[in-house]
Design a protein that fits this description.
- The strands form three sheets. Strands 10-9-8-11-12-14-13 form a seven-stranded mixed sheet, with helices on both faces. The protein has a four-stranded antiparallel sheet with strand order 4-5-6-7, with helices on both faces. A three-stranded antiparallel sheet has the order 1-2-3, with no helix packed on it.
- The longest helix is centred in the first third of the chain and has 38 residues.
- It folds into three domains: about 190 residues, no CATH class; about 180 residues, Up-down Bundle (Growth Hormone, Chain: A); about 230 residues, Rossmann fold, CATH 3.40.50.
- With about 750 residues, it is an alpha/beta fold.
- About 50% of the residues are buried.
- It is globular, with a radius of gyration of 30 Å.
Amino acid sequence: MHEIIRNVNENLRNLVDASVFGGRGGSQCALRRGKAGVEECGGQQTAATWKGVRQTGGRGGNWRRRFLMKLQARKLVAAGAACLAFQGELMAGKRLLPQFGGAASVWCCTVLFFQLAVLGAYFGCRRLGQAKARTRNGILAALGLSGFLTLLPPLPVMAWLPLELQPLIALLPYAGLALGLFCTTPLLHQQQADRGDFTIYAWSNAGALAGLLAYPFLVEPFTDLTMQNWVWAVGGSAICLLALRDGGGVSALPGNLVETSPPQTPGGSGGASPCRAGGTSSPRPSPPHVCGGEGEGTPAPDCAGLGKTRWQWWVLPAVSSATLLATTNLLGFEASAGPLTWALPLALFLATYVWAFSGNRRASCGVIATLGLMALIVSHFIMEARSAGLLVLVLIAGGATMLACHVWLAEARDENTHGFYTATAAAGVIGSALMALVVPQITDGPVEFPILTLGTLSIAGYRWSGRINRPILCTVAVVAIGAAIAAESAGRATEVARARTLYGCWRVTKKPGQERYRLINNSTIHAEEDRGNPQASTTYYGPETGFGKWLEEMKRARPALDIGVVGLGAGTINRWLRPQDSITYYELDAKAEELARAWFTYLGRERCRVVIGDGRKSLQNEAGARFDMIVLDAFTGDAIPTHLLTREAGVIYRRHLKEGGVLAVHITNGHVELLPVAEGLARGMGLGCEYDKQGMIGWAILRAGLTPPSGRVLEWTDERNSIVPVLKHEPRGQDSLPEIWR
């Protein structure tokens, strides 16, 4: 009987060992405990005493429950830190959009900034792990409290800096709390009893995914930016302070159950090697890594140098990060720049990284690469349609490319975890820096996406395709490359000018044998002129459109008109003005004026002025009550400048309109239904609203005396302006706008 009781106690003790020391994801080890209470694991011995267990006496398993609750609390803190970090990244990018005219490339700078924060946090948490508890706690507390700096007025724009660097300077107030949040999970992992248990990184990645997907669909539509900023600052500070509670980096074991192990040798695997049942050591499994987010590994503090690195550690993360931003830019060019088009590719990046590192995915990589190439082929045929299907195909091709990079990277790992994570983090920064700062300067169009996707999918797919799939992949790759070359050649055959700026890609096309010129920004036609037939109707502004009808009425009512236009295009409105009429254009991109004057004749008239700069800011700095008509023509493109349609912008327009003046809003857009927003703007300005649509061209005319908007409208403010409620899932009017989005 005594022998049976002893065996039962031994089994219970082993069960407790597994719950305390065992890890998940292949990191569990079979612990063999001798009578002296010594554990043997892969040749290493860990002295442990169960004095604390015996002292619990009649309290039974309370200590065990408390300890497991503490472990769960750590995982929740890690998930919260990742969630806040990613939501803070989206929030910071959204705050920058109005400051830089809604440019799609603002997100490239935001990702680069937060990747630099990740790299700094990686080295910072290694140093913090070696620091004294008081020093570490003080630094973490300071980083957490620095989040309140983001509540202060934004930093002034440093106009003397290159335009591409200005967003990075504007993001500096976010640096401290971002560092603190990115340090949280590695520091919590260092405090675990079993550092071979990486489930805390799984929780961190889950929190990151939840934060990314929740922001555009739940956070942005229902909360304003000030509330988001307060939650980020207060929540981030609380997360950093919670990370201090476990203090000195000592494994939090119950009672006096303290684990001591021999120090790791320099250049080792960066942590205690997990052991298998047979007692042989194996390389430590690596935690998931996130580009621009949580998930960096935590090597041993005494690792010196990077050790021997591989070329894959530098090339593949750079290509993956570049593909992420190329995909995001293309979505911004085709749809709209904002948290929705930012969050989806970043969530796809994170999901593919986690999936690639969770097992051997080489067998499926060839099939996925083939599907990605097929998506590229189809996208070339429906490029002009600008449908939602095109956006899905872009995501499939970009996601397949990122997955191929991550699978290849997972295969290239070895025991040099410090070198691996340092190289991959630095390479991610390099890839983003190239996309944000270099590529726009050396290219004249969005050529990076087809180059990255075609090259990566072809090479990686060929590497991992089997005998059956390899001929199929090679055929599809050849067709995809041919389709890309044909599409690019066909586009350039009609082009007479091309340019790329921070605000998009410009093209001027001319049909062979005709004197018909078009000005195209990304994929949107902004102006057209037929010099061979000057009487031909022009885009958007003909006499049959809502704008044309009201312009004729204003001409009959007033001897001379003074018109202000936000958005230059090529200056097409000039064609419909009388010699005595005056017009002022407010254009964000100086390249637009350069192309308009070089290839179009509209700006050659007198009484025409062009002001370069954000239209709202320029109007705010000028005297009021001077315009008979203000035209907002900045929404036909893909990046919607939401700050031009807010209640605060309406106050500026109202101040600049003369008595009986008209505000004409051009709301033609392929992906967003802006009529509810225009009606909300009219309600905020105290004006009536009339909607006129001819074919695909829609104008909202705001003027006193018209029928005031009724029913459900969407009134944007500077603090709250989400495009999710007005995305075009199907043709709809104002009555179909859900009550919840009001």
